[in-house]
């Protein structure tokens, strides 16, 4: 696996632990449908939360969450729609972003943006 993929997986693991500490139940990780993928799918307060995790080693070119493009949002929504259909879920959903930003010493900060986007296609 490429080093940048390992780095991304490290961020996803940090995000997963973060959500668990906040009381979220993790339903799935790296759930995919066709070419669309959701990093984490969690459940809290009777809502399914679809989470895109962005991990960066610096913010020279912007914050990690700035890299969730409209195209990526649509891809997450496509996977979410299939997941909801397969699970026969009729409750509320939400799309969140968790950004994990490392500094040069290897320490990280985490930012959880609830209701970060609502894709329109």
Secondary structure blueprint with pairings:
Elements lengths: L2 H19 L3 E9 L2 E9 L2 E10 L13 H18 L4 E11 L5 E6 L8
Parallel strand pairs: 3-4
Antiparallel strand pairs: 1-2, 2-3, 4-5
Model description:
With 121 residues, the chain is α+β, with helices and mostly antiparallel strands. The chain has one domain (3-113): 3-Layer(aba) Sandwich (Trna Endonuclease, Chain: A, domain 1), CATH 3.40.1350. The protein has two helices and five strands; from the N terminus they run αβββαββ. A five-stranded mixed beta sheet has the order 1-2-3-4-5. β1 and β2 (36-44) form a beta hairpin. The protein is globular and about 45 Å long. The mean pLDDT is 91.
What CATH calls the topology is: Trna Endonuclease, Chain: A, domain 1
The spatial strand order of the largest sheet comes to: 1-2-3-4-5
- The structural class is alpha+beta
The main sheet comes to: 5 strands, mixed
Cα separation of the termini: 33 Å
Report the β-strand fraction as a percent range. Answer: 35-45%
Average pLDDT figure? 91
Order of H and E elements: HEEEHEE
CATH class: Alpha Beta
Number of helices, counting only DSSP H or I runs of 4 residues or more: 2
Q: Rg to the nearest angstrom?
A: 14 Å
In the residues, how many domains can be counted? 1
Number of strands: 5
Helix content: 25-40%
Give the low-pLDDT segments.
Answer: none
């Amino acid at each position: 696996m490429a080093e940048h993929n390992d780095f991304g997986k490290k961020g996803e693991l940090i995000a997963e632990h973060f959500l668990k500490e906040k009381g979220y139940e993790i339903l799935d990780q790296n759930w995919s449908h066709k070419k669309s993928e959701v990093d984490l799918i969690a459940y809290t307060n009777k809502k399914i939360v679809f989470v895109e995790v962005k991990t960066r080693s610096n913010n020279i070119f912007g914050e990690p969450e700035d890299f969730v493009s409209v195209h990526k949002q649509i891809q997450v929504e496509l996977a979410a729609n299939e997941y909801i259909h397969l699970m026969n879920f009729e409750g509320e959903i939400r799309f969140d972003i968790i950004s994990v930003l490392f500094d040069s010493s290897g320490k990280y900060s985490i930012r959880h943006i609830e209701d970060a986007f609502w894709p329109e296609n």
